[in-house]
Structure formats: C-alpha cells, structure tokens
Amino acid sequence: MHDHHHHHHHSHNGQQNMAVAFFLNLGFAIIEFIGGVLTNSTAIMADAVHDLGDALSIGFAWGMGRYSERPADNRFTYGFRRLSLLSALLNGLVLIGGTSWVLYQSIPRLWDPQMPHTTGMLGLAILGIAINGYAAFRMQGGKTLNEKVLNWHLLEDMLGWVAVLIVSIVMMLVELPILDPLLAICFSLFILFNVLRHTASSIGLFLQRSPDLQMQQDVEQALLSLPQVTDIHHLHFWSLDGEKHVLTVHLVSAQMLSAQQYQALKQAVNERLQPFELAHTTIEIEHPQENCRDAKPQTEHAHCGHSH
C-alpha cells in the first residue's frame, strides 16, 4: 500500500513538473521565433524549433501521461501505459521535421552569411539558459522514459543557449557571421542524432522487443535455478512503456506434482520473480511428459521450442 501511495505521489509531482515545463517552453518558443526573425539569426531559429518540439512533446507527455494512468478496461486489457510510448514517438517525429527545416534554412547561409543582431542574441541566450535550466531542474529524477527524454531535451536546450551566448559574445568582438549558420547546423545534427536514437528505442518497444536483455537472462536463470524446474520455454518478455515489463513463460516440472507441491512451486516462482518488479506475469506449469498447448501441430508430440 505504501509503495502504491509513493508511486502515486511521484506521478502527481511528475505531472505538475510537466505542466510547468510545458507552459514555460511554449511561451518561450514563441518569443524565440519572433526573436529569431528580429535578430536575423538561424541559430536562434534552430533553438526555437527545439523548444517548440519540446513544448509539444511535454504537452503530449503531460496529456498522455494523465490518460495512461487510467485503469485497464475490457478493450484495453493491459491499460493505457503505451500512450506515453506513443507520445515519445510522435515527439520524435516532430523534432525530426523541425530540425530538417532548420538545416534547410541554415546550409545555404554558409555561402552567404548575414550578420545577426548580436545584442538581441545575447539577451535571448541569457533568457534561454534561465528558462531551460529551471525546467530541466524541475524534470530531474523523472522515472518514465518520457520524463527522461524530456529532461534530456531541456538539458540539450540549455547547453544550446550556452553556445548561443558564447557565439553572440564572439561576434560582438569579431565580425564572423558564418558562426551563426554553423552553430545552427551543429545544433540540428546533435539533436537529430539523439532524437533518432530515442525514436528507434520507442519503435523497438512498440515492436515488443525485449526491453532489457540482461534482465531477461536474469529472469531465465532465476527460474531455471529452481530445483523443481527442468526446463523453460515460450519465454516472452516485453514492455508496456519502457518501465512496466510483462513476462509470460512455460515451466516444465521435474516430476508429477501433487496439489501441495504445485502450490509450493508457484510460491517459489513468485519469490524468484519478486526482485524484478514485473507489471504482469503469466506462468504455465507443465508436467514432464505433458504436451505443450502452444506447440505447432507438427511438433505436438514434443515439447515446445526450448528457449535455452
């Protein structure tokens, strides 16, 4: 009970932090777009895109996060946890689009650099560091994949503004207009690299890839180390949202089990799986010579494919 209360308290805090980060980012992204046009700086436009992407993704995560806490129903029997995964994916797509647009704007400027308004850039950079720094601080220690991704975005944005700050100071001292598009291109490639990595990870989870191979092997070892278990097969390990994992597996017992032995084995399995904190488990126990229900017709006489 205590654990549940703690989790609820954490998710409520996470929601509040997301709301604050959302409004800060959205308001600031609008200021940046105007600022990017007024200062004639592609680097600021690049940052505006990132902040807009972040604002959208935080909005998604905030909305979806609230929805994903809803209990399972008859149609969504596993609940709505995957919504937060969906929002991480959509957010990735928004950022990929925005970043590509900035690259399209910045690359031609390398051949025809225009001097931006450096004082305006400096002012926006200071504001950017303050706002993103505060939002990142609020999102620190997030548990979900979404909160981690968002924290990353906010830290990247803050570092981005530190770079804008340095470049604007350099350009105040030396007239090097090419620094502006160069900075925009560096930002965009850096963001693109990270977003593609996170998006690939979200797609993997969507395709029910194992969320953690090491953990999967540990689960397998924990079950096989039970003296009453001679074999395991049909082990499926996947994740609802990157943090809530699901396991289904067939165990083969060493001998025919009495009701008491069966109960004892179930208890032993529970104890072995306890440390992994799995969200859902389905475990089938088969007797030594029993046919596996999930075997293909041609292998009906044998056990199902062994997993080890």
Global morphology: elongated
Order of helices and strands: HHHHHHHEEHE
Largest sheet: 3 strands, mixed
- Structural class by helix and strand composition: mainly alpha
Please report which band the strand proportion falls in: under 5%, 5-15%, 15-25%, 25-35%, 35-45% or over 45%: 5-15%
Distance separating the two termini:
37 Å
User: What is the share of helical residues?
Assistant: 55-70%
Number of DSSP-assigned strands: 3
Low-confidence stretches: 1-7, 298-303
Rg is 26 Å
Question: Counting H and I runs of at least 4 residues, what is the number of helices?
Answer: 8
Mean pLDDT: 82
Sequence of strands across the biggest β-sheet: 1-2-3
Structural notes for this entry:
The protein has helices at residues 2-39, 42-68, 82-106, 118-139, 145-173, 179-206, 213-224, 259-273, and strands at 229-239, 245-253, 280-286. It has 308 residues and is mainly α. It has a three-stranded mixed β-sheet with strand order 1-2-3, covered by helices on one side. Mean pLDDT is 82; it is low at 1-7 and 298-303.
Main features:
mainly alpha; three-stranded mixed β-sheet
Q: How is this fold's topology laid out?
A:
Layout: H1 2-39, H2 42-68, H3 82-106, H4 118-139, H5 145-173, H6 179-206, H7 213-224, E1 229-239, E2 245-253, H8 259-273, E3 280-286
Parallel strand pairs: 2-3
Antiparallel strand pairs: 1-2
Helix pairs in contact: 1-2, 1-4, 2-3, 2-5, 2-6, 3-6, 4-5, 5-6
Brief account:
Helix content is 64%, strand content 9%. It has 8 helices and 3 strands. It has a 3-stranded mixed beta sheet with strand order 1-2-3, with helices on one face.
